[in-house]
Every structure is written in structure tokens, then in C-alpha cells.
Amino acid sequence: MTARRAPKVSPMGAVVMMIASIGSLAAFRSIPALAMYAGLATIALIIQLQNARVAVVMIKWCLPFVVPLLFVHGVMNASYPTAYWLMDVIPWRPTGFRYGVIVSLHFIVIATIAAYWLHTERDDLVDALIRMKFPIWSILFVTQGVAVGAMVERRVSNVYLAQRARGICVGPGILARLRAFPSVLIPAVIGTLLEAESRIPALVSRGFGSSKLAVPPKPFVRIANQLWSGIPILIFALVGLFEFLS
Amino acid sequence: MQLTSMSLMRISVLAAVCIALNIGLNKIAVLLQLPVFMDTIGTILSAALVPLPFAILVGVVSNILGGIITHPAIPFYIGTQIVIALMAVFAYRRGWFERLPTALIVGFVIGVVSAVVSAPVTVIVFGGVTEAGATAINAILLAAGHNIWTAVLSGTLIISSIDKVIAAAIVWLLLQRLPDRLKLAHGSQT
User: Fold this and answer.
1) What is the distance between the alpha carbons of residues A69 and B12, in angstroms, rounded to a whole number?
2) Would you call B125 and A106 a contact, using CB atoms and an 8 Å cutoff?
3) Nearest residue of A to residue B142, measured between CA atoms
4) Integer Cα distance of A93 and A72 in angstroms
5) Is B177 touching A (CB cutoff 8 A)?
6) CB of B3 within 8 Å of any CB in chain A?
7) Residue pLDDT, tens place only, B59-101
8) Whole-angstrom Cα distance, residue A33 to residue A237?
9) How far apart are CA A27 and CA A33, in angstroms?
10) Which of B142, B169, B170 sits opposite A77 (nearest CB)?
């Protein structure tokens, strides 16, 4: 019995989503239309992935951006007129708040594009790049960049723990963390670069880069998945109709 | 410029590590709650390891991948990464990363120029909100009655110049410890 693969977004689905979202940013001007598009696109992704964790990712991305934005323009930005004072202390600027809401919704739409790409099957993405005849070094850039990025993170956190175990002060204050950063960073980065260098002859001796990559066959895509790719266009059309009618 | 498969592989692997440094270190800076971005160390270091077009690609690809892995706002700053790559390559070819004082000056200049390049993106696309430290400065300046352009430019100038000076110092440290065989010769065009 094989384990059931968690549903993922196809590269085509992510491309369609990106085009629909750029179109929505250009076409929709009203707050309800932008909110409707962002909400429906996120809900569609949650249903497609059968996993609500995407909502948590979206909140983690958007909250630290939206809250300061609304506060800065709705309260602090003196270039917007004050409508009234809350408790005679806090100014309330509705025009600035409205501007903040529009920029926030734009950002949420942008975050939706990123969420679709984040949940794309990486193997399918690499296969698609090979089929589109991207040069091998560019594919190596992307794949190695992601893989080594995770490795750098792990390595730095290992060195960080090792330095702490040796009694080297690596916190808790910002200054202590900043001062400790080079001593944590340098060994990890040098190690990663030297290890990468040792991989080069191994890759070349296996013919990587000197021969053409075998073009992978087009994967079998279920009709349901193909239909999912069209959902962002449907959402765009629905919201467009809503904005036109209202 | 004809590249053998060995040298192309070398460039690709080292460039991929530089991309990984940009992404990985940025995530660590966020995790450790450092008031800096640390997302350009890989780009500045790539000036010493790979030719100019690849150094630019390091910046571009880092920001595209960072937009998916770290934060959706990052790809909008691709122009900043390109400018940083160009300036870092120019500085490395003139040997300005040989000594710490010149490396720090290069870092400061890169910080100022990158702030000027990224401020319009922060204002037009993100309404003046960016990394927490810079946003706090922007908010204070906006409350003091400055317009959004002045506020964002001032806030970004302060944070970006500190960030890039630290990045340049780290790159200087790395170049001191890296074996010469990994580095491009000064004045090298390839």
C-alpha cells in the first residue's frame, strides 16, 4: 500500500493564479471587490490542498504587515485629516485608514500568489523548467539555492547552539545577538562554501552540465486538477461581474 | 566568453550557495529578531566568487525564491539587489574589500544607494511599511508631519546603511578566511 500524496498545486495552476491576481490588482478598485477576490482565492487554495495550514501561513505573512499599515495611516500619518479624537488622545483618520485597507488588500492578493507557489509540487516545477528548455545552470540555481538554503539555516542554528554550549554569549539582548552573529555565521558559511566546492568535480564527473537533460514526459494530470487550474480565472470573472454590477 | 562545463558548474554551484546565503541568513535574522535584513550578504559575496551576470542573477533569483519561502514582499526589491550586485562587483574589482575600512565605506555607500532605490517600492507598493525597525522610524516621521516620501527615505536610509555596513563587514571577514582558489582575481572579467 502506498501513502497517499498530499494534494499540491500544479505549476500551471500557480501561473494561472499569478496572471489572474495581477489582473485583479490592475482591474479592481473597490475594497469589497479586492477583499472578495483575496478571500475566495485563499478559500479555493485551502479546499484544493484540503489543509487549513495555508491560512496560518497567510496570517503569518499578512498580520505583521497589515496591522502597522492600518495604524500608521489610520492614526499616525499627519498628512491625512483627523475626523475625531479617541479619548481625546488618539487621532482617527478615516481617509488614511481607507488607504491602509486598500494597500493591505493588495498585499493580501500578492501573498495569495506566493501561497500558491509555496504549495506547488517542486518536482513538477523542475520537470516543467526542463521541458521548457531552461539552461541546466538556471535549474541548478533554483534547486540548489532552495536545498542549500535549508542546509545553511540548519548549520547556523547548530553552530549557534554549539557556541551557547561553550559558554559564548549569544543573547538575550539585541546587542549580544548582533555581536555573536559573526562568530556563528562565519564557520557555517565557510563550511557550506567548501562543501559546495567539493561537490563540483563530483557533478562534472557524472556528466552533469555536459550532456542534455532527459526531458521528462508530461505528467498525467487528473481532470479535477486541470479544473482547479481554471478556478482563479473563474474567481476573477465572478468578482469582475460583482464590481461591474455594483 | 566561452565557459567550460567545469567552470560553468563551478559558477552555478557557488552562485547557488550565495542564493542560499541570502535566503537562509535572512530567515535567521528574522528568527533571532535582529533589527537588520541580512538578505544581501550572498549577493555581495558573489561579486568575489562569480562573474557579473551571475552575481546579478544571484540577487534576482534570491528575491524570487525569498518571495515564496520567506515573505511575499521580497520580489518587489529585485531592482535593489541588481544595484547591490553591480556596486559590489565594481568595488571587488578595485580591491576595496581587501581592507576593513574601505569595505565598511563600500557597505555604507551600498546602503545609501539601495535605500534610494528601494524607497519608491516601499512607498508606492507597500504604503511605507517595511521591516519593523524602519517602519517604526517612518511612523514617527509621518506623525511629525513629514510627507511619506521623506519619512520612508529617512527610515530606510538609517536601517539600510546599518544593515549594509554589517553585511560588508561580514563579507570582508568571509573573504579573509576563504581560500584564494575560490575567489576571482581582482580586475577579472570572468
Assistant:
1) 39
2) yes
3) A77
4) 10
5) yes
6) no
7) 999 999 888 888 899 999 999 999 999 999 999 999 999 999 9
8) 11
9) 10
10) B142
To test the contact with chain B by mutation, choose from A60, A137, A151, A154 the residue with the greatest count of B C-beta atoms within 10 A, namely A137
* Sequence-distant (≥ 6) Cβ neighbours of residue B148 within 8 angstroms: A77, A79, B123, B127, B128, B138, B142
Q: Are B183 and B175 in contact (CB under 8 A)?
A: yes
CB A24 within 8 A of CB A241: no
Residue contact A118–B69, C-beta within 8 A: yes
The residue to which cell 478615516 is assigned:
A94
Residue B13's SS3 state is helix
pLDDT tens figures, B114-171: 999 999 999 999 988 887 777 888 888 888 888 889 999 998 898 899 989 999 999 9
What is the least distance, in Å, from the CA of A143 to any CA of chain B? Answer: 8
CA distance A140 to chain B (A): 7
Q: Is B21 on the interface with A (CB under 8 A)?
A: yes
CA angle A106, A109, A114 (to 5 degrees): 125
Q: How high is the pLDDT of residue B30?
A: 72
- The pLDDT, as a whole number, for residue B180 is 85
What single-letter amino acid sits at B142? L
Long-range contacts of A19-23 (CB under 8 A, 24+ apart): A19/A232, A20/A232, A20/A233, A20/A235, A20/A236, A21/A109, A21/A110, A21/A112, A21/A113, A21/A232, A23/A236
Nearest to A111 by CA among B126, B29, B27, B135: B126
Write the CA distances from B160 to A100, A116, A174, integer angstroms: 24, 30, 17
CA distance, residue A22 to nearest chain B CA (Å): 13
State pTM to two decimals: 0.86
Cross-chain Cβ contact B65/A142 below 8 Å = yes
Q: Can you read off the three cell numbers belonging to residue A94?
A: 478615516
Q: What are the beta bridge partners of residue A211?
A: A208
What is the per-residue pLDDT for A149? 77
In chain A, which residue's Cα lies nearest the Cα of B76?
A110
Interchain proximity B20–A152, CB inside 8 Å: yes
Query: Please, which residues bridge with residue A136 across strands?
Result: none
Which cell numbers hold the place of A44?
479555493
Put simply, whether B113 touches A (Cβ < 8 Å) is no
Predicted local confidence at residue A78, as pLDDT? 87
Measured between its terminal Cα atoms, the distance across chain B in Å is: 8
Backbone phi, then psi, for B184, in 5-degree steps? -75, 150
Low-confidence ranges of chain A (pLDDT < 50): 1
| CA nearest neighbour of B41 among A174, A195, A184 | A184
